[in-house]
């Protein structure tokens, strides 16, 4: 029981990345089916953000860091880059800069960015 509780409270970097990717896919599908402002879309987007923040707070900057994705279209976004690939992934999706500035302290933003 203790091991299962520990897994829930302290998920591995691999588990968090897996969850972020899955929720990101669900969010995109919800947007396509129900629109960007639907409750399901909003909840999925917010869950993805929470998981990304948890990943950063647990594993940055040693295993993951923020870097501006200058190739992304639309609003400015950070890529959550992984220092070592997980599966075939080198990043844990994108996080809009405006959201990062809302949910992370200035000190955290500086700490989580690649130096």
Helix-residue proportion = 55-70%
**Count, helices:** 5
| Rough outline | globular
Main pleated sheet: 3 strands, antiparallel
Task: From the alpha carbons, calculate the radius of gyration and give it in angstroms.
Answer: 14 Å
Q: Strand fraction band?
A: 15-25%
The run of helices and strands is HHHEEEHH
Helix and strand content put the structural class at: alpha+beta
Strand order in space, largest sheet? 1-2-3
Distance between the termini: 40 Å
Mean pLDDT: 94
Number of strands: 3
Contiguous uncertain segments of 5+ residues: none
How would you describe the overall organization of this protein?
It is a single chain. This protein has 115 residues and is of the alpha+beta class. Helix content is 57%, strand content 20%. The chain contains 5 helices and 3 strands, in the order αααβββαα. A 3-stranded antiparallel beta sheet has the order 1-2-3. Helix 2 runs antiparallel to helix 3 (39-59). The chain is globular. The N and C termini lie far apart (40 Å). The mean pLDDT is 94.
Task: Give structural attributes.
115 residues, alpha+beta
Write the layout of secondary structure elements.
Layout: H1 2-9, H2 13-34, H3 39-59, E1 64-68, E2 77-86, E3 89-96, H4 97-103, H5 106-112
Antiparallel strand pairs: 1-2, 2-3
Helix pairs in contact: 2-3
Outline:
With about 120 residues, the protein is an alpha+beta fold. Helix content is about 55%, strand content about 20%. The protein contains 5 helices and 3 strands.
């Amino acid at each position: 029981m203790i091991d299962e509780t520990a897994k829930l409270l302290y998920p591995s970097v691999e588990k968090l990345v897996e969850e972020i990717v899955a929720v990101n896919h669900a969010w995109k599908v919800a947007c396509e089916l129900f629109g960007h402002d639907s409750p399901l879309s909003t909840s999925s987007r917010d869950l993805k953000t929470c998981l990304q923040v948890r990943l950063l707070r647990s594993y940055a900057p040693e295993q993951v860091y923020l870097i501006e994705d200058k190739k992304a279209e639309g609003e400015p976004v950070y890529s959550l880059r992984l220092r070592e690939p997980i599966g075939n992934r080198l990043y844990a999706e994108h996080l809009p800069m405006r959201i990062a500035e809302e949910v992370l302290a200035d000190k955290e933003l500086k700490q989580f960015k690649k130096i």
